[in-house]
Amino acid sequence: MQSFIEKMPKAELHVHLEGTLEPELSFALAAKNGVELAYKTPEALVAAYDFYDLPSFLAIYYAGMNVLVEEDDFYQLTYAYLTKARSQETLYAELFFDPQAHTSRGVSFDTVMIGIHQAQVDAEKNLGIKSQLIMCFLREMSAESAMQHLALAKPYRHWLVGVGLDSDERNNPPIKFAEVFAEAKEMGLKLTMHCDVNQQNTLVHIKQCIDDIQVDRIDHGVNSLESEALCDLIKDKKIGLTVCPVSNQFVVQSLTSDEIHQMLKKDMLVTINSDDPAYFRAYLNENLIELQKEGKFNQKQIVTLVGNAFKVAWLDNATQNGYLQQLQHYVSQYT
Ligand code: ADE
Ligand code: ZN
Fold first, then answer.
1. Percentages helix, strand, coil for the chain, rounded to the nearest 5?
2. Ligand 1, from 15, 96, 194: best to mutate by most atoms within 8 Å of Cβ?
3. Ligand 1 centroid to 16 CA: how many Å?
4. What are 244-290's pLDDT values in tens digits?
5. How many angstroms separate the CA atoms of 317 and 322, rounded?
6. What is the number of structural domains in the chain?
7. CATH of the domain at 180
8. Who lines ligand 1 at CB under 6 A?
């Protein structure tokens, strides 16, 4: 099963680029940019990763970003992730990034965009991994700030496929950003929002995502299982759920394999993803392999999970079908 998963063509739909910053690259960039790190070695930095809920993770995640200063830093970050993903047979990735976490430190929006985009172009050409970009707004920041960043993105509209909402969900409901997301939809961008596991008012937030924002996907959304009506809505509207097992484990001490089984049983379009792989020490393969072990998923169920990611990817039908055929071909050759 491990080798079946490792060699399988895959798609990743929930990965934060800033969450792919490996300690070694962090140290190299810190030295180049004259940024002081709180730890002496990459190993010591990893040893200090201690996450037990979303805020405890976010504090370390934002501190880690200080080493990203120049355009080439964003290039290196993105190219390194795409290289790693391609080595795991991830053929397609949709990448989140958090521009407000950089502009708030004095890094220009253009620096971030150009560095990331150039790496995407080069990785597609050199490595054969296709990727698209999703601009996230930080939900503890104001709706005005989100709107200003959407305006900054207008000249780069065609470098983006969608917008998302991430960071601290507590007291920051989807509805706070209704206007920004309506404007993004007008621009022809796809919409997704985080509904992190076990957040306060999670069912209200999930319902707002569907009814008020009209999202195309939900990131995480595991708690939807607590409401049959929500599950039916998600299924009827074919809303993809980007679940991140290893990330969830830091909060609920389980890879949520029972919940993923339930979603599969209900024919919900659940997908498996890595979230912040450099911090959680698990890329897509490790997430799938650990999940399979915990939940004893069979081959068919793993193929459904991976196939769902291609099905709910923001791609045209022909490209999507091409990937699905590649997956089917792999499975038929393997079995
Ligand atoms: N930003 C980066 N990772 C995140 C997560 N898992 N939830 C919310 N915001 C994030
Ligand atoms: Zn996330």
1. 60, 15, 25
2. 194
3. 7
4. 999 999 999 999 999 999 999 999 999 999 999 999 999 999 999 99
5. 8
6. 1
7. 3.20.20.140
8. 16, 19, 54, 61, 166-167, 194, 196, 247, 275-276
